[in-house]
Design goal:
By secondary structure, the protein is mainly alpha-helical. The chain is built from seven helices and five strands.
């Protein structure tokens, strides 16, 4: 098995492990009261994106070196000439950087991972949505991005006024979370596997305007679809 095949096998293993871990999170969600086991599994599954980025980067570097070596060999008349020329060309090739996140392979891996997490999230009961459109993928986070549901973890409804918990970055609907913590100071983040142990306080919550725009666009789309559906029913 060549190097690229090993990398492909490792990437497939990452996806399979993610699926297994999230399935286990669903199984233990009812008995894992403190969320410790689920936290470990979910944390590991989120790291898969960073691992994939590293592996795909190594694969790209290996491919570039292999191509450069072949070209150098074709341009060299003797083995001695190849041995003289290759070190400099190798060093120059290794210094070149590749934005792995822009590669098709990386994007396909993230898409597949997102689908796996979506399926697992439905099994756990975390979101009431029905597919990839119910998720928000943020690419600016460390380790390749994060994935959030557009639905509030308490009400299961679309977050019309999303706020972000600054301690763990998870999102809630403003009205929902304030209603929950209003008369109870002992409420922690309800997102499965969240490592944050601090009780939610108003000072921890900040509006997220970017997510609000995404959610409002989704709400407008749903309302428009309902109007179109109603018009078609009237015509019939």
């Amino acid at each position: 098995m060549d190097f690229n095949s090993h990398v492909d096998s490792a990437l497939n293993t990452l996806l399979e492990n993610t699926k297994f871990l999230m399935e286990m999170a669903a199984v233990v969600s009812e008995v894992d009261v403190d969320g410790e086991y689920a936290k470990i599994m979910e944390d590991r599954s989120r790291r898969r994106v960073a691992d994939a980025e590293l592996l795909i980067g190594l694969k790209s570097k290996h491919k570039a070196l292999d191509q450069e070596l072949r070209q150098c060999a074709n341009e060299s008349s003797t083995i001695e000439e190849l041995e003289r020329n290759w070190p400099k060309r190798q060093e120059a090739t290794e210094k070149k950087t590749t934005n792995v996140k822009n590669t098709t392979e990386y994007k396909n891996f993230k898409k597949t991972l997102k689908e796996t997490l979506t399926t697992a999230d439905d099994a756990i009961g975390g979101a009431s949505g029905d597919g990839d459109d119910d998720l928000i993928v943020e690419d600016d986070l460390e380790a390749g991005g994060e994935i959030f549901s557009m639905y509030d973890p308490w009400s299961k409804a679309l977050m019309r006024n999303p706020v972000r918990n600054t301690n763990c970055r998870h999102l809630y609907d403003r009205d929902s979370v304030y209603a929950v913590i209003k008369d109870n100071i002992g409420i922690r983040c309800p997102v499965l596997g969240c490592a944050n142990k601090k009780y939610i306080q108003p000072g921890h919550l900040v509006p997220d305007l970017k997510v609000q725009e995404i959610v409002r666009a989704r709400i407008a789309e749903e309302e428009n679809n309902q109007e179109v559906s109603s018009s078609e029913d009237d015509e019939n």
